[in-house]
Amino acid sequence: MKKIVTIGEIVVEIMATELGNGFLEPIPLVGPFPSGAPAIFIDQVARLDQPCGIVSCVGNDDFGKLNIDRLKADGVDTSAIRVIPEYATGSAFVRYREDGNRDFVFNIKQSANGQIGPAPEVDALFDSADCLHVMGSALFCEGSVKLSLQAAEVIKAKGGLVTFDPNLRKEMLDLPGMREAMQEILSKTDLFLPSGPELSLLTEAKDDVGAIAELLSRGVTAIVLKQGSEGASYIDARGRIDQPAFAVEEIDPTGAGDSFGGAFVTCWLRGEDPAASLRFAAAAGALAVTRKGPMEGTSRRAEIEAFLTERA
Ligand code: ATP
Ligand code: MG
């Protein structure tokens, strides 16, 4: 079976239990929950019994241990997660506003995550990989940008595949070198998984049709466009397949895109047909929003299959 690896932030998420604005007074919180977009993605892959691993850094603290224990228990290769005693594990505090938007306090770049970089364990993991998934959110520091570019090169050179979810926080695109790094990754990308407006983020064409044509002509084999509760579409040179979202009660949308992505990439790598892969991934995304906690939303194959049988 093909092995999927990813690179990037591991954090704990601590969330407000009530709606409101920001963190300027004492409020009830719940957490820590294991989190980080690349970590959620790879946990979903592992829960589908696909071989997989992550390159990351955590501190020598409970937040790091909680994440490693969880990933290990779900079957992720954690050999390239370095424990760095001088730094604390990354964290994100989140509070939902009445209108559904969120306020965050992040500690990622200054945490152990900022130390992501080369190591013998990292090389060994890349050597064992057939597919690299690049998560745009992981390109927050020079070390992880460099490592992601290097990994894309190594994995492509040995005939592997690169999948790319730009998963971008807008302010990141203006960091020095970020556009160039993203373009470089895109030039090596086989499967591109943007959400909504990210479709034309890295193209000259600014309309969807033009952006799709440009991406396909630049060597991207297939695009999976994520549109939240409006569903998702698969597009390649042969055409387009639309998959509506399943109707579910949304409890916590965080991590839906990552669970969806982990499920889609796994099916696609196994050679399953695009329509079936899209439906399976949409079920993973729908299940993710019904559970509170970012990584709590990942599902096992049997859960997804049961959900699909129920909805058939
Ligand atoms: P993220 O906020 O995690 O980065 P994303 O923008 O990458 O998310 P979304 O489009 O929000 O990804 O979600 C991915 C897929 O999950 C959707 O295409 C859809 O199939 C499913 N999904 C997301 N939200 C819902 C919802 N509220 N109800 C049902 N399905 C959903
Ligand atoms: Mg996303």
Can you offer a commentary on this structure?
This protein is of the alpha/beta class. It has a single domain, classed as Ribokinase (UDP-N-acetylmuramoyl-L-alanine:D-glutamate ligase), CATH 3.40.1190.20. Helix content is 35%, strand content 21%. The protein contains nine helices and 13 strands. It has a nine-stranded mixed beta sheet, sandwiched between helices. It has a four-stranded mixed beta sheet with strand order 3-2-6-7. α2 links the parallel β4 (52-58) and β5 (81-83). The longest helix has 16 residues, at 142-157. The two termini are 29 Å apart. Residues 167, 195, 226-229, 231-232, 245-246, 248, 250, 253, 255-258, 260, 282, 285-286, 289 line the site of adenosine-5'-triphosphate.
Number of domains: 1
Largest sheet composition:
9 strands, mixed
Q: Which fold does the CATH topology refer to?
A: UDP-N-acetylmuramoyl-L-alanine:D-glutamate ligase
Overall body shape: globular
Instruction: Look at the structure and give the CATH class.
Output: Alpha Beta
Rounded to an integer, what's the Rg over CA atoms? 18 Å
Q: Could you state the order of secondary-structure elements as H and E?
A: EEEHEHEEEHEHEHEHEEEHHH
The percent range for helix content is 25-40%
The CATH homologous superfamily is named: Ribokinase
Strand order of the largest sheet: 5-4-1-8-9-10-11-12-13
Pfam family, one: PfkB
Protein name: Sugar or nucleoside kinase, ribokinase family
Keywords: ATP-binding, Kinase, Nucleotide-binding, Transferase
GO molecular function: ATP binding; kinase activity
